[in-house]
Design goal:
42% strand, alpha+beta, six-stranded antiparallel sheet, 149 residues
Length: 149
Amino acid sequence: MLLDVEEIKDYLPQRYPFLLVDRIVEMDIGKSIVGYKNITINEPFFVGHFPGQPIMPGVLIIEALAQVAGVLGFKSQEKKPKDGYLYYFVGADEVRLRRPVVPGDKLVLKANIITNRRGVYRFSAEASVDDELVGSMNILCAERKIDVE
């Protein structure tokens, strides 16, 4: 394990119930990252998506991948939100969701940097469960300077 959830919170501004990364297990700074999210029946989105047939919303799979990519962006630039920086999710291309994610799954999240130009990162990203591809996409994240109180 490289980063546990408390260390991840140093690099992501999201908090429960919207923090969707539990661990970072591999990282090659400036290149790639692997993390995961354990999916439990206690996730707040399962109350309404869908009762009796709980499925993780696809947009949250995309968000989880964007969060992992954000950690890689922060670590690659040696910056943190507390320093006055955020990485905003600004787009996704070539999105393909292939199978449902359900309670009990361990959602493995991988991202690779394709380009970084003037603080705009393009990542290739994929999510899997038990080595079966759940979804793949290219993600855009933009670095922004913010005021810190």
